[in-house]
Design goal:
Number of strands: 0
Radius of gyration: 18 Å
Helix content: 25-40%
Mean pLDDT: 75
Shape: elongated
Strand content: under 5%
Structural class: mainly alpha
Low-confidence stretches: none
Length: 55
């Protein structure tokens, strides 16, 4: 790569991480352990259920 392209790539990696094309839930590691709850995979949905859907 050319010098400006290398500098741009390093700057993007500095801001977004080493792979800005994917998010943590798309990668094989599935994100950090604090982002997921293996015991209840629907936890986010139940915690964010709208009041009109009962609970």
């Amino acid at each position: 790569m050319t010098e400006p392209a290398d500098r741009l790539r390093r700057r993007i990696e500095e801001i977004f991480g080493d792979d800005p094309a994917t998010t943590s839930d798309e990668r094989a590691d599935g994100g950090s352990s604090d982002e997921r709850d293996d015991r209840d995979p629907d936890r986010w949905f139940t915690e964010n259920r709208p009041p009109h859907h009962g609970g």
